[in-house]
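ARCHIVE CARD
SHELF: 3
SLOT: left
DATA:
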Amino acid sequence: MSLLPVEDALAAIFARVPPARTESVPLEAAAGRVLTEPLLARHDQPPFPASAMDGYAVRAADIVPGAILDVVGTAQAGAGFGADIAPGTCVRIFTGAPVPPGADAVIMQEEATRTGDRVSFAAQPPIGRSIRPLGHDFRQGQELIPKGSRLTPMQLAVAAAANCATLPVAMQPRIALLATGDELVLPGTALGPGQIVASNSFGLRPLLAPYAAEIRDYGIAPDNRAALAERLAGIFAEAPDFVITTGGASVGDHDIVQEILLSLGVQLDFWRINMRPGKPLMFGTLGKTLVFGLPGNPVSAMVTAAVFIKPALRRWLGVAEPARWHLPLLAPTPPNTARRHFMRAQMVHSSQGAGLLPISETDSGHTSSLARADMLLVQPEYDPGQPAGTLAAAIPLDGF
């Protein structure tokens, strides 16, 4: 079987991802969720001309040399003056208060000299000074947040200001994780002969959690056909949206995951990708469930999750795929083979800006080098190697 190009694999996955479905959630529960409709302002903000500071609301034409105005009242946030300002008068006003009709400027209190109920000012203000006009922030019907945005604290603040108590967001998927392998034991276990500590699920869960309504870890299944089939059948019976297995995806005698998935009715779209690390990646469907069979080597599992599963989850939520980063190399890269290389790299900041420092380690079980990386440097097929200073494409390992 020939190796599938990375772009073709992504296209096959995207073809199986359903359109985003919407649910309404309270504003306080919307942080990090993805908006499925543009957020439109329901009113003008501010809904009236408002003072931008503490001071005096005046008629600018009244402020002439030697003029002393009568202070005839007070306007504060939530309680306006309630009448027009007559010539020769002014109103004490506080930040956020409605500017009384007739007033066309606010003079800050530090520029006023007040004696009793009379006040004078040092200089004539321009019309409109320190007044937030009606609709200065936003106008009714204006788009405030575009569809497909992952809601940030700043966006939630403007949604609240727009008087939205609930928001339409994409329903998040339920994800099931299953590790396979007789050699695996959980962290904290005393290691016996031939055993290794399972790590894949402990990296995948936080990597995918920002996208998911629920991630359920089904533990470790042995390399036993009957036991693995029973475990997987039980997982599929709960109809999760994503099933992600790790291990058993290659061609060895104990690599039985593909065989069991097919026996359970999974329709396999592809197996084996033209990339490193992570060549033995499987993808298929069982009904509406998307099924990913990741390699067992931990670097391969995490890289394939970053390259394929995260884009699938973004597509599920209706989020546009982010553009790749392009940063200068801080060291040369070696020649590449026929497979696209997702090379571990560090993003280094200096006074000259940010750059990519390639990590030379390529072993797919070398977790400590992956832990040092925060980027995947994308090296094309048959790339002859690039000198330091060349702009190179990269994928962030962290972030949405």
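SLOT: right
DATA:
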Amino acid sequence: MHLDHATIVTADLDAARRFFVDVVGLEDGPRPPFGIRGHWLYAAGRPVVHLVDATVPAQQAGRPAPRIDHIAFRIETAAEWQALLGRLHAAEARYQQAEVPLAGECQLFVALAPGVVVEFVTALHHVSPVRQ
């Protein structure tokens, strides 16, 4: 398992993109067709920073913007994925599962506390039907 990406939610999507591209040196690249505006910024061919448009005013959502929304860990094998599921079930940790549009990937989101989210992502072919 390794750190996959960080997601930053911001009301100034274009300024954040310019900073990470023009100053940090990341490259704007392909992104699945999610229902919200954003950018995936790449380093060494991998999308390491996900920028997401803060569409709901922060005061209404009860969550600050800009913010780092979550961190994600990439699971490389089916055995690692199954072991993770076993640990989640043993800990009675609640999670949400989602499929990444057009990417052939599965995500699990675990809310540790209000505003603290950890994502685990793997290729769909590593995933057997998930029980929650």
